[in-house]
Amino acid sequence: MHEGHRRRLLEKLKSGDNLFEHEILEILLFNAYPRKNVNPVAHALLSRFPSINEVLHADTDELCTVEGVGENVALYLKCIGQCLDLGNRCEGFAVIKNIAQFKDFVCARLNGRSTEVLEFYLMDKNGKVRRIFSFSDDDTGKVEVRPDEITKLISVHKPYGVYMAHNHINCPSRPSASDDDITARVILICNLNNVRFYDHCIYSDTDGVYSYFLTDRLEEIKRGNGGRFFGL
Predict the structure, then answer these.
(1) Beta-strand relationship, 196-204 and 129-136
(2) Which of 57, 120, 167, 222 could make an S-S bridge to 110, C-beta 3.0–4.6 Å?
């Protein structure tokens, strides 16, 4: 019977319904008790401690005094509490306020790579990098990403804006025709999803970073080449 109860709670979580505090704690306990009804344990914990936060930050020995809680479960709950603390201290990968900061960020990300990598940086409206998606074919000379993969990551994560970057191995950073093509495709996908596209930078160990925005190549592509990709 508890398997059906688990499915109902997970469906509530998935659909975004409001969950009671004991239901949230039950879901956390699912992994600790794969085949056990965790409802009594969740209620016992919340009878001892005033909130989930107190449960997750309680002393391990005290957790073990609650009926149904052993050392492994206590350590599991304590680990979740430490993850929450770590998350509260982290503000994201970086804050990027201008193209100069983005170029520095690209250098830090792509310096020393032995294969070509294409990365997308999904931004919030305050300039924080919230997600990074990295693509590589383990090839020193190329990397290919399908348009539907780009469309999916943008439509699913709904960023405020997007930066992209990739590296050239043992050759200058000046863009190729295929670099222009992928840039035009990403611009189109961003436009269709009402997402801002800020820049595409190319990093090279030989001559630094090329910026589509700073060289006005971004505007040239928007005016001249973007329209031919509406068949995506």
Answers:
(1) unpaired
(2) 167
